[in-house]
Amino acid sequence: MRPIYALHSIFLPYGIVGGKLVDGYNHGQIAASLGIRILQGEDPFSIQIIEGSSAQYMFNYEQLERFNIDIKDLPPDSVIINQPFSFYKMYTTLIWTMIGFAAILFSIITLLGININKRIHLEYKIKEDNEKLELRVKERTKELNELLEQKILYQEQIIKSSQFKSEFMASMSHELRTPLNSVIGFTDVILERISGEINEEQDKYLTNVKSSALHLLDLINDVLDIAKIESGKMEMNIEDVNLSKIISQINTMIKPIYEKKNLKFEFPKFDKEKVIQVDRLRFKEILFNLLSNAVKYTETGGVKLEILENEDDWVINIIDTGIGIAKQDFDIVFKEFKRVNSEYTNSIEGTGLGLSITKKLIELHGGNISFTSELGKGSTFTFTIPKKINQISEAIKII
Ligand code: ADP
After folding, report:
1. Is the CB of 339 under 6 A from ligand 1?
2. In angstroms, what is the span from residue 155 Cα to ligand 1's centroid?
3. Of residues 175, 275, 285, the one with CA closest to residue 234
């Protein structure tokens, strides 16, 4: 088959396959573009004359189909008429863009779906865990409540038995003191030869009886003190106590012991009016216990009493140059009936109750006691007495 030339394109729908055809639309387009150029001010004479044919390759799709001619075999830039309308060809880019968008959207929705699923799963798990935890907390609370009830019961029993012990000790000590005082009194009568002459040996034995009875009386008095404090029966009478007077009274009590041992003794000096708010008898007992210990456990050197006044409290130091306390014995010092086990301490009389009573009496005043010590070099016992009355009475109430 041969292509047709120079035929007008209007014949194309009428059974012709196609060829290089003259096309009115094409002519019109060329003429219109020349016209626009002239209208835009171009010189018509400068426009080059178009020579040659303006015909172009045009084919009828139906005829191409009929004669089985492939579009690919046609010359390039061929115009094909009667070609069936293909939506796909017309909107290929749009379709693919939309497919792309749809794919992205689908992926996002899928991802969101997975995420939501995971969250739901997680929330479910958290809820489940919370429920388990709640159950465990309930169980543990129940157990704890049971334990607490047991503990309260146990504590009540301890308090009861401790009160019973203190009451028993208080009444026993009282009962023991009366006959003991008469032992001491009658021993004195015999020793002073009021009831007649005694020989030297009898004097020696009776002196021993008297010293043992006095030691026993000390012990009973200490036990009575502890029992009173523990059972809350120790009455405190807080009042203004003149410091110079109390220091001088203590000095009178302690002087015979430190002079006998040739120890230096240093007391602080105060204005005549200076007062401290304490229970007179108990405060004296505290100072006496600590100072007599300092003298008891010091061989050479001396003892110093320091009373320092702060804004809120008094700080009292009892410093000695005595035997000191080894670190491993620090814990036992304030314990009842406990004494440091050494050749020196064993040679000195003591009950092991003095410091535990002292500690309790200081605490009754709302203060506290501590110490520093070095073996062979000496010890410093420090205690505080708060200044405010309400602090003191609070402490008393607690006890
Ligand atoms: P004690 O009646 O034995 O003196 P305390 O309760 O007063 O009982 O003291 C307990 C122990 O603490 C004493 O046995 C002693 O070993 C030790 N101690 C107390 N004060 C001193 C001190 N100033 N220096 C060295 N040791 C001390």
Report:
1. yes
2. 32
3. 285
